[in-house]
Amino acid sequence: MSKSILITGCSTGGIGASLALALSQKKENHHIFATARNTSKIPKELHNLPNVTIFPLDVSSSSSVAEAVKIVRGSGHGLDVLINNAGLPFSMPLLDANLEDAQRVYEVNFWGVVRMIQRFADMIIERQGRIVNVSSIGGMVHLPWNSIYASSKAALTNLSETLRHELSPFGVSVICLQVGGVDTNFDARTTEFNLPPNSYYVTIKDDIAGWATGSIKPRDIFVMAKVFTAAEVAKHNTPESCWVILYGKVYDVTDFMSSHPGGVKVILRLAGTDATEEYDPIHPPGTLEDNLKPEALLGNVDPKTLPKPIANAQEQSSEEDQGPPPMETLFNLDEIEQVATKQVSRKAWGYYYSAGDDLISKNFNREVYRSIFLRPRVFIDVGKCDLSTTIMGHKVGLPIYISPAAMARLAHPAGEAGIAAACRQFGAMQMISNNASMSPEQIVENAAPDQVFGWQLYVQIERKKSEAMIARIEKLKAIKCIILTLDAPVPGKREDDMRTDNTARKLPVPSGKVAEEKAESLPDGTPVPKDGGGGVGVQLFAGTAYDLTWKETLQWLTKITNLPIILKGLQTHEDAYIASLYAPQVRGIILSNHGGRALDTAPPAVHTLLEIRKYCPEVFDKIEVLVDGGIRRGTDVVKALCLGARAVGIGRPALWGLGAGGIEGVHRTLEILADETKTCMQLLGVEKVSDLGPEYINSRIVEQQIYDGPSGLAKALRARL
Predict the structure, then answer these.
(1) Domains of the chain, with CATH numbers?
(2) Residue 141 CB partners (closer than 8 Å, separation 6+)
(3) What's phi and psi for 23, nearest 5 deg?
(4) Which region among 5-14, 163-172, 201-210, 365-374 has the lowest average model confidence (pLDDT)?
(5) Disordered: where is this region (predicted)?
């Protein structure tokens, strides 16, 4: 049987709007009066339905309610059901509550309901209808900061129970809905939260604000009321009870240690201390929520009890106090690195600068370009010089891209998003590290419409994690390809990074370092390693698969993504040849020895380029060949392009630029390389990148150093078949 139903508070995203939509679609063809103070906020779907009447209604206004009565009576539908749903949120410690604001809450949540019932009672009684009052379990559960709102709902609940007895003789039923946690935008209406500066609760104002605006979940409200001193937290520094402070909050990570991707030791080193400075630069937002159970959050730390960090000599130096020089006064990438070295932390420097073993591959990556000489041509008009090219079919402004480089926020808070901002100004491609310190969504958020990104993939032992990440990446249109990294199935030995592993020894609050050295295992049996730490690099490799194969891995990857695949880390002509046999599934390769950070004495990309030219030049026609490692000058860029590279990547230089001057530093890095590349091409007598070729260089010295054995192509072909 069709009913006439009036619902208050029908703004989009709330309970009222959802009720109106659901009831309007019932087969009984109910007539719905959907109301809100501002009708433009009522869902558009309701505006177009013939059985829905929309009009403005402010339940706190007697005149507005009186006008609503006229509209309903005049419609001829009468009224069978009145749903009092309109309500106002209000979260504030009672001692700080403004009485006018508190009274406004009661005007809507309680007196508004009374006003509606009194004015519509005649129509409801005439139909022996029903009144539904939407209350809240907040009126029964005693939550801090909620006294005004909770008491208004408690009053509404009691009113409803009493009214049920008063109206039952007239055949009118009264229902009170005790609504629990519902995913609506109810709290989003609290856009500002201002706690008086003299409030007793000022130390946890951000937490109260989070509750007021809905960004903190209900359970957290109990936790935030608990405040610990730093000394209390410091007592929990053993494998049996391990607490850490992050962003002013106290977490119990005892149960999480054994499953920590970076291993047990890194947590124990910071046990009982404020680990924010160590944690923040190397963890993207959401990491805590994704990995810790809600009950791991114990409360807040009193900031007044936190010890002040002990400044080291470098931080106290007058030179550093002066800050970096203007970026325009730096004229090459070496100068930018020197400035960055003075600006970044010892931990950041150790991670960025470090390379495998004796740094032979790292240094040779750069030195090899000095053994290639240029062959300039004359009597050529070089007034115009175009640096643009294409990568994977996408036009880019430079033949220079940013290689996947992890943990950019170790250098500067702008992080990978800062690198993206600089790339935007040059139309340069950025390959985002699998271990970026920001989420991919954050990095591409402000990208230009035609800006090009790639996503680096380290396949995880748990393949479902990689599959979930790729599904997430495919939703970001700015990311055009997947870069599958192959040259580091295990981390190399990076001693400069390893030396920064003992930072916890210098912290002002005693950490779990002593406990770590004494303990042989965690309570769950997980052994505590006794060998030397591996630094940031080893932590990042935790969970990375080392069982990848040509047939199985590529078959798996092509099933879960439609994005073009680039294989990164090829170091021989044989592997380049095999990769070309997998075209078009494989669209490109990056010749790289991981910046010398994996296998020391592995060949530079230039050697592999020359090997391909010697043994299997057809590779250049089947797939795109990119290179990275050792690029520090525009002449290096041009030499690699002459040997057949589509584009060249820079990793450390982008990080050093970020460390030296944030976004401006990365911009200056790209500006220097772009200017030098253009100058080199003009002096060579070349107008376009596509015109560069081996005739512009003399690589005889380097050719004497490359592999000179059997081609191995027949064996590679058999392996493919």
Answers:
(1) 4-189 (3.40.50.720), 356-494+544-720 (3.20.20.70)
(2) 150
(3) -70, -30
(4) 201-210
(5) 307-328, 493-529
Reply yes or no on whether 458 is catalytic: yes
Edge-first strand listing for the sheet containing 297-301: 227-228, 297-301, 249-252, 241-246, 237-238
φ/ψ region of 514 (left if φ > 0, alpha if ψ in -120 to 50, else beta) reads alpha
Q: In this predicted model, what pLDDT tens digit does every residue of 130-157 receive, in sequence order?
A: 999 999 988 887 777 889 999 999 999 9
For the chain, how far is it from start to end, CA to CA, in angstroms?
A: 71
Beta strands in 191-336 (DSSP E): 227-228, 237-238, 241-246, 249-252, 297-301
Residue 250 bridge partners (DSSP): 245, 299
Told to judge if 487 belongs to the known catalytic residues of this protein, a careful annotator would answer yes
The whole-number pLDDT of residue 492 equals 84
pLDDT tier at 185, thresholds 50, 70, 90: low
Q: Which of 458, 577, 582, 696 is catalytic?
A: 458
At 75, phi and psi to the nearest 5? -75, -25
Give the Cα separation of 465 and 444 in Å (integer): 21
The total of other beta-carbon atoms located within 10 Å of residue 701's CB is 12
Alpha-carbon distances, residue 214 vs 9, 15, 144, 209, 300 (angstroms)? 19, 16, 14, 8, 19
Q: Which residue in the list 487, 497, 600, 628 is annotated as catalytic?
A: 487
594 noted as active-site residue: yes
The two three-digit tokens of residue 256, written as one number: 């999480």
Are 630 and 365 spatial neighbours (Cβ–Cβ below 8 Å)? yes
Query: How far is the C-alpha of 606 from the C-alpha of 641, rounded, in Å?
Result: 10
Identify which has the larger pLDDT, 303 or 606. 606
Q: At what angle do helices 111-127 and 62-75 cross, to 10 degrees?
A: 20
Question: With helix as H, strand as E and coil as C, how does 434-473 read?
Answer: CCCCCCHHHHHCCCCCCCCEEEEECCECCHHHHHHHHHHH
The closest of 457, 453, 456 to 391, measured between CA atoms, is 453
d(CA 109, CA 583): 66
pLDDT tens digits, 2-49: 999 999 999 998 999 999 999 999 988 999 999 999 999 999 999 989
pLDDT at 232 over 70: yes
Over range 457-474, report the average pLDDT: 94
Query: Which carries the bigger pLDDT value, residue 532 or residue 707?
Result: 707
pLDDT of residue 34: 96
User: Could you tell me whether strands 173-179 and 227-228 are parallel, antiparallel, or unpaired per DSSP bridges?
Assistant: unpaired
* Residue scoring higher pLDDT (139 or 705): 705
CA dihedral (442, 446, 451, 454) in degrees, to 10, reads 0
Whether the predicted pLDDT of 250 surpasses 90: yes
Instruction: Tell me how far apart the alpha carbons of residues 399 and 625 are, in angstroms, rounded to a whole number.
Output: 12
The residue whose two tokens read 């250098």 is 411
Give the whole-angstrom CA distance, residue 52 versus residue 48: 8
* Choice among 412, 594, 607, 667 that is catalytic: 594
What is the DSSP secondary-structure string of 545-568?
A: -----HHHHHHHHHHH--S-EEEE
**Stated pTM of the model:** 0.68
d(CA 276, CA 118): 57
Instruction: Please tell me the distance from the alpha carbon of residue 243 to that of residue 315, in angstroms, as a whole number.
Output: 28
Expressed in percent and rounded to 5, the helix, strand and coil fractions of the chain are 45, 15, 40
In this predicted structure, the answer to whether residue 517 has a pLDDT above a threshold of 70 is no
